[in-house]
Amino acid sequence: MKWEELKPELPVRIAPGHESGFGGRTGKVVTVGTFEGYSKRIGALVDIGEPLLLIVEPEALEEASEDPLPPGWGEFEV
User: Please, which domain of life does this record's source organism belong to (predicted)?
Assistant: First the structure.
């Protein structure tokens, strides 16, 4: 994605194999831009539904469709 396409609440998918170890996960953008301790734009803060937020560069994000499952439900492999 490009910087201009990122906006809060946008559903995104992290590229498979991302260095964070969370590649392939989906989440929502919380904010975009500069974060404490940095003097330039470095990425988007993404909420993936875990007890942490990830900073991911725009190149590693793609727009995802809205989650069709109601809140509290999730998919898993058996």
Answer: Bacteria
From the centroid of its chain, how far is CA 71? 18
- Cβ-count burial 46-69 (b if 16+ within 10 Å, e if not): bebeeeeebebebebbeeeeeeee
Helix (H, G, I), strand (E, B) or coil at 77: coil
Q: pLDDT tens digits for 5-31?
A: 999 999 999 999 999 899 999 999 998
- Stated pTM of the model: 0.73
Residue 50: both structure tokens together: 């875990």
Enter the tokens of residue 29.
């953008």
Phi, psi values for residue 15, rounded to 5° = -55, 140
Is residue 27 classed as helix, strand or coil in its secondary structure?
strand
